[in-house]
Amino acid sequence: MDQNRVKQILSSSADIVVKYNGTSVWIDNLHEDGRTATVHLRGPLEERSDVDINELTEE
Protein backbone atom coordinates (compact mmCIF):
# COMPACT_ATOMS: atom_id res chain seq x y z
CA MET A 1 0.00 0.00 0.00
CA ASP A 2 1.30 3.48 -0.65
CA GLN A 3 1.45 6.48 1.67
CA ASN A 4 -1.40 8.35 -0.05
CA ARG A 5 -3.79 5.41 0.30
CA VAL A 6 -2.94 5.03 3.99
CA LYS A 7 -3.77 8.73 4.49
CA GLN A 8 -7.08 8.30 2.61
CA ILE A 9 -8.03 5.32 4.78
CA LEU A 10 -7.14 7.20 7.97
CA SER A 11 -9.33 10.16 6.98
CA SER A 12 -12.26 8.02 5.78
CA SER A 13 -15.30 7.20 7.89
CA ALA A 14 -15.88 4.03 5.84
CA ASP A 15 -15.04 0.57 7.19
CA ILE A 16 -12.16 -0.30 4.87
CA VAL A 17 -10.73 -3.78 5.35
CA VAL A 18 -6.93 -3.69 5.59
CA LYS A 19 -4.82 -6.78 6.13
CA TYR A 20 -1.33 -7.35 7.45
CA ASN A 21 0.07 -10.85 6.87
CA GLY A 22 -3.47 -12.05 6.10
CA THR A 23 -4.93 -10.69 9.35
CA SER A 24 -7.45 -7.80 9.46
CA VAL A 25 -6.04 -4.72 11.18
CA TRP A 26 -6.95 -1.12 11.91
CA ILE A 27 -4.43 1.54 10.94
CA ASP A 28 -3.88 3.85 13.91
CA ASN A 29 -1.47 6.33 12.38
CA LEU A 30 1.11 6.87 9.67
CA HIS A 31 4.59 7.68 10.98
CA GLU A 32 6.47 10.80 9.91
CA ASP A 33 8.86 8.73 7.78
CA GLY A 34 5.89 7.91 5.49
CA ARG A 35 7.00 4.28 5.27
CA THR A 36 5.70 2.79 8.50
CA ALA A 37 2.43 2.83 10.41
CA THR A 38 1.06 1.70 13.74
CA VAL A 39 -1.71 -0.92 13.41
CA HIS A 40 -3.74 -3.10 15.75
CA LEU A 41 -5.78 -6.26 15.23
CA ARG A 42 -9.50 -5.98 14.65
CA GLY A 43 -11.26 -7.51 17.62
CA PRO A 44 -10.82 -7.53 21.38
CA LEU A 45 -7.01 -7.41 21.40
CA GLU A 46 -5.56 -3.93 21.38
CA GLU A 47 -1.95 -4.98 20.81
CA ARG A 48 -0.29 -2.47 18.53
CA SER A 49 2.58 -3.04 16.10
CA ASP A 50 4.67 -0.82 13.87
CA VAL A 51 4.73 -2.20 10.33
CA ASP A 52 6.03 -1.28 6.88
CA ILE A 53 3.09 0.09 4.86
CA ASN A 54 4.26 -1.93 1.85
CA GLU A 55 3.13 -5.02 3.78
CA LEU A 56 -0.46 -3.74 4.14
CA THR A 57 -3.10 -4.83 1.64
CA GLU A 58 -6.64 -3.66 1.02
CA GLU A 59 -9.48 -6.13 0.53
TrEMBL record:
Gene Ontology CC entries for this record: endospore-forming forespore
A Pfam family the protein falls into: SspH
Record keywords, A-Z: Sporulation
Keyword Repeat among record annotations: no
Entry coiled-coil feature ranges: none
Protein location: Spore core
InterPro entries named among the record's database cross-references: SASP_SspH
GO biological process: asexual sporulation; sporulation resulting in formation of a cellular spore
Superkingdom field: Bacteria
Predominant localisation class: other
Family per similarity comment: Belongs to the SspH family.
Descriptive protein name: Small acid-soluble spore protein H (Minor)
